[in-house]
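User: Working on a comparison across species. This one is 8-amino-7-oxononanoate synthase from Flavobacterium orientale. Can you predict its structure so I can line it up against the others?
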Amino acid sequence: MKPFPNSLAQKLTLREQNDSLRKLASKNGCIDFSSNDYLGFAKNEEIFHQTHALLLERNLKSNGATGSRLLSGNHALYSETEAYIAQFHQIEAALIFNSGYDANLGFFSSVPQRNDIILYDELCHASIRDGIQMSLAKSYKFNHNDLTDLENLLTKFSTSTENKKQTTDNRQRTTDNGQQTTVYIVTESIFSMDGDSPDLEKLVALTEKYNAYLVIDEAHALGVFGENGEGLVQNLQLQDKVFARIVTFGKALGCHGAAVLGSQELKKYLINFARSFIYTTGLSPHAVATIWVAYQQLAKSQKERALLFENIAYFNEKLQSTIVTIPSTSAIQSVILTGNEKVRLVASQLQEKGFNVKAILSPTVPLGQERLRFCLHSYNSQEEISKVLKLLSIFVF
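Assistant: Here's the predicted structure for 8-amino-7-oxononanoate synthase from Flavobacterium orientale:
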């Protein structure tokens, strides 16, 4: 075997020296305060058995999709599931991707064009940032959830409703060379590391004022917010004001995959130009059946959502004021402990006591913002929350 390249070995050594080397770990059997399974769907036996029953009912016995959806992989459950997802989210169309990463990569690498502008929150997920990097559009980040900073950028790149140019689409401006420019604003409804949210209503107002297109990743809101878990956008009745939403199924839905929600035209465009959709094998019938069944389960999970929000409130009530946290009303609660060594040590101590709490290290989060990321669930008990917070107060000081 050829020797490992020295340049790569040096990067690994640097990670080890910074105490930031990532490693795969097996499940440890501890009480779950780390997974994204907010409603317990991943371990829900009813979903498991109903998925099997659906496959038998449809006589679907294939273990795989056999090819990309544009070749041989577009089995019957796809169109049925996409139609239901679109109806559930009160939108024209949904297009299923293999994962949230694939959905963001496909959308942002293909939709914004060379003369377009992307304005994105500085804490957007890596999949969004990677997709933006692959785009031909120019991109600029704005300070996290800072709508003043965003508006300053919009005044440079957008045409406001008070002073817009006459074009065929009033959300586009004309560049000096006569080409049209579209401005996309990109954010998340619930941020994966901080657990906080932008002011979506004010954000929509800015979008309308400056004739921009709004794109929102709802990965950590789907299943949690809304009467039936529709997400934060629909909970605020803003679905008609958003150009595209990305919903992922690996969090509260407990399965795998994702979908881009938008117009029929957007779906048609992505089928033709999103490379992460075109050039990959489709999801298996079993995977799509699980998505279908999990969506049916959402309408019956009001009790689980109520328990989850009770636990969120209880966590914040019992958290000592001396513990530094990022304010959040979502299932993600972050305790700031500066330094990789410190946060890794406290996480290890909690795990030794039987609580699976994960350390989030730099460079995953900015230097000085290292943290313990508590993920709360409907199935966590208040006794478990009290115990882990008591231990936290001991280990931190």
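For your comparison, note: Residues 302-318 form the longest helix (17 residues).

User: Helpful, thanks.
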